[in-house]
Amino acid sequence: MEDCKKIDFFFSARRTFALAAALAGAAALVCGALSGCFGGSDRGGAGADKDRQLTFLFVPGVNDPFYTTMETGMRAKAEELGVELVVAPYPELWNPDVQIRVLEEQIAKVDPDALFISPVASDVLIEPLKRIHERGIQVVTVDTFIGDGDYSSPSDYSFPLTYVGSDNELGGRLMAEHLAELVGQKGKVFCQASNPDASSIAGRVKGFKEGIAQYPNIELVGVAWCLDDEAVAERQTLETLRRHPDLVGIFGVNVFSAQGSYRAILETGLTGAVKVASWDATPTLIGALERGEVDLVLAQKPAEMGELAVEWTAKSFREGVKVPKKAIPGFEFFTRDNVLDPAMRPFVYR
Ligand code: T6T
Fold it and tell me: Among the atoms of ligand 1, which is closest to the Cα of residue 165?
């Protein structure tokens, strides 16, 4: 009976997402027809050349399995299309100063046709990226965006060719629904987050808060920011468990916050008593789900994001196509019931 409910819930959450994705797709098509949401590329659009040699540069946010998987997708598509892909050194810290330093060094060294970057802060990266765009280099933001991510109407930050990444607010709301189901729609829950300045994390937390607010018998006791440090996440979760011994659920919003909160639950022996819903399908979190130590894992599609970024940008240069201002691959949800299903394996990060 319990299992039936879980399966039913799993499919209803997937249906919710499928419906949202269908509506988003329909909206994108309407926008496309009206041409307001699509932008041409300055360098790529006019005078397209199908044989053009292209060099793209990827500047990831931090060294983690999400970005290394995205790189795999980029490399595969770049090889298929005969594009040179240069990958900048992975920063060990999620930090705008570190990222800007890497970015400026690499731009000077590589002078690419296009830059793929995951801005680690939605405001601080606007100026450095604008300067790069003004040099004639196309900017594509992958995973995170600058400003509010709306590149379709003119603004200080609408110069990127496109944003390729998740709908993080939607994901946050879906995680709230899943966690609510897991805890029987009542009790205290906690959100272990990472960086408030990153659009991805801010979106997930916003969506989660909105989602949880729909459940009158669930109390969100707090949101903690670990700044992408797994040990800090573990300490923050332990501290929350001390203050709220009756906690029933945790949402870990990305690799480091989710892995840190999962370790805190293991350490305190609260596996099962506190339900854990984790974002990002790392081998660590999937292994934990297989052993029954976490309850749900959301997988983004980083490889697909990487492929789409390379494909659309190459098409813009070589075929002069207008690029959609947003490309949103969906999510997959790993549960106890499907985690061993071979069809789910491709969604584990590499
Ligand atoms: O969750 C991903 C990514 O989507 C987010 O923007 C930053 O954190 C991760 O890289 C995981 O560590």
Answer: 4
